[in-house]
TrEMBL record:
Keywords: Hydrolase, Magnesium, Metal-binding. PANTHER family: INOSITOL MONOPHOSPHATASE, INOSITOL-1-MONOPHOSPHATASE-RELATED. This is Inositol monophosphatase family protein. SUPFAM superfamilies: Carbohydrate phosphatase. It comes from Schleiferilactobacillus harbinensis. The lineage of its organism: Bacteria, Bacillati, Bacillota, Bacilli, Lactobacillales. The keyword Metal-binding applies.
Length: 262
């Protein structure tokens, strides 16, 4: 895809998530139908499902040849990464959406032959749209975002999955003590935004492809590392423990989390 086609794709993605965000804000006080998925902390609502259907219908109209992986099941059964692939998370931070009506995001990542191409994350209630990719740079609404400074773990705030911290997985209590502090935001998309803005130096969580895809495009464009915690490259077809961080922080975290000598 050349730069003009990529810019058009980014524009369309921004339009889709903006319209979906406006729809959610319009219905924010409507009664919700909430169901549990894998556990009582894993929720889905009628608006997650509706938003995914709307986003996927919009994608199919304009990019009928693309494959689409969606969290709530309206997409394709994607088994390879050939061609243009969209990863759709219609509401990221559904627990926040239900309990706070705040701190949730809409995310779409577009990849070509497995390579990150365009990512879009909308902080729905704040109406802050982060978008970009390697050919475009990264923007917050219309303002370019510069590369983040390469802070170490001791100098930065660290975002983590609450379950990992609660059960001290990967020596996360030691990671907590070594960092400048920990923050648990309840949405991978909102965590990614903190990294893009340079407000946090790392995020560690168990994530699915739709949780990772959009933010990975932008984080890598700004020079951050996105990989499995053990250092393996991400597999965009499966879930796993993912570390997103500045380069010095990656080394600091792996040394503690995996007991690696430095
Ligand atoms: P979700 O709200 O789209 O499900 C904190 O819960 C973060 O982890 C959210 O971004 C959430 O995305 C994601 N997450 C991934 N797997 C999850 C699970 N099994 N239960 C709850 N949240 C999950
Ligand atoms: Ca979910
Ligand atoms: Ca998610
Ligand atoms: Ca979701």
């Amino acid at each position: 895809m050349d730069k003009a086609e990529t810019a058009l794709l980014a524009l369309r993605m921004r339009d889709w998530v903006s319209q979906a965000g406006a729809h959610i804000r319009h219905h924010i006080h409507d009664p919700l139908h909430v169901q549990t998925k894998s556990s009582r902390k894993d929720l889905v609502t009628n608006l997650d499902k509706q938003t995914e259907r709307d986003l996927i219908a919009a994608i199919r109209t304009e990019y009928p040849q693309a494959q689409i992986m969606g969290e709530e099941g309206s997409g394709d059964h994607v088994t390879d990464l050939k061609g243009l692939v969209f990863f759709v998370d219609p509401i990221d931070g559904t627990m926040n959406f239900v309990k706070q009506k705040y701190n949730f995001a809409i995310m779409i990542g577009a990849y070509i032959d497995g390579a990150p191409h365009v990512g879009v994350i909308l902080n729905v209630m704040r109406q802050e749209l982060y978008w970009g990719g390697p050919q475009l740079g990264v923007f917050k609404n219309e303002t370019p975002i510069k590369a983040v400074s390469p802070l170490s773990l001791a100098d930065g705030l660290f975002g983590i999955n609450s379950g990992m911290l609660a059960y001290d997985r990967y020596h996360s209590h030691q990671l907590f003590k070594t960092s400048a502090g920990m923050r648990i935001l309840g949405s991978a998309g909102i965590e990614y935004i903190q990294l893009l803005e340079g407000r946090q130096v790392a995020y560690l969580s168990h994530l699915a492809p739709w949780d990772v895809a959009a933010g990975r495009v932008m984080a890598e464009t700004l020079g951050m590392s996105v990989s499995r915690l053990d250092g393996h490259p991400l597999d965009m077809l499966s879930s796993g423990d993912v570390l997103i961080a500045t380069a010095p922080t990656v080394a600091d975290i792996r040394a503690i989390a995996l007991d690696q000598p430095r």
